[in-house]
Amino acid sequence: MRIATWNVNSVNARLETVRRWFEQEQPDVACLQELKCVDEKFPAEPFERLGYNIAVHGQKTYNGVAILSKTPLEDVRRGLPGDDGDDHARYLEAVVSGPTPVRVASIYLPNGNPIGTEKFAYKLNWLKRLNAHARQLLALEEPLAMVGDYNVIPEPRDAEYPAHWTRDALFQTESREAFRALKWLGLTDAFMQADGSPGAYTFWDYQAGSWQRNDGIRIDHALLSPQAADRLRGVAIHRDVRSWEKPSDHVPLVVELEL
DNA sequence: ATGACAGAGATACTCTGA
């Protein structure tokens, strides 16, 4: 089973690019982030035509996450527990049905810039809530894939130019510590486990020729429970998609589980 | 030190992203 995660930066502005990738790759499951539309505006039809069941947690203009699956989705949860006042659509969870069901979460973690503001505090609080929820899910002892745009550069090796990010929320000590804390719960970073080669990035800014200079960072991650990590067979970052016409600034990350 | 891109939705002297 192949599970993909991709921050598409507006699913409607990106529709042709995303549809083309789905047609080529036909992932069993795909988690999308930054839909930038409400549920009713999600372009379901082209994906249903490719055989997908769809769960959407959308929002006007900002955020928005989805899970698409070739098999039916069950036990859908919208929003991260722990703050009823949080109205950002950044978390969606569902169980992908099949002989071995897999719980999948589509995550769009707050950016948190600029540091020292409310936004950075929101990011750290969100990470704390994600940690608490991950702890609950791990207690279920089932195959679990928490995938998405974590907006965290875990280590200097995950940036071509680490010095560019020293004052950025994505690379702050607190952000990196919180990401490590998730892993210490018992989650495996699928890319590091199955590949780990340096220079593997998932994001290049639109600005300042970042793509041309390969000024990339690895901020999209797939964290697996032990029961999913046992079945990890491989991982791929679809780097070439960044050179397509009208690209997202993120590229797809695909995890293969033997199920 | 600043801007550079891109998208949404506004019609802005904006907000957000990373």
From TrEMBL:
The gene is xth. NCBIfam families: exoDNase_III, xth. It comes from the Bacteria. PANTHER family: EXODEOXYRIBONUCLEASE III. Keywords: Hydrolase, Magnesium, Metal-binding. This is Exodeoxyribonuclease III. Coiled coil: none annotated. Residues 4-250 form the Endonuclease/exonuclease/phosphatase domain. Its EC number is 3.1.11.2. InterPro entries: AP_endonuc_1 (IPR004808), AP_endonuclease_F1_CS (IPR020848), Endo/exonu/phosph_ase_sf (IPR036691), Endo/exonuclease/phosphatase (IPR005135), ExoIII-like (IPR037493). Belongs to the DNA repair enzymes AP/ExoA family. Its cofactor is Mn(2+); Mg(2+). GO terms for molecular function: double-stranded DNA 3'-5' DNA exonuclease activity. CDD domains: ExoIII-like_AP-endo (cd09086). It is an enzyme of class 3 (hydrolase). SUPFAM superfamilies: DNase I-like.
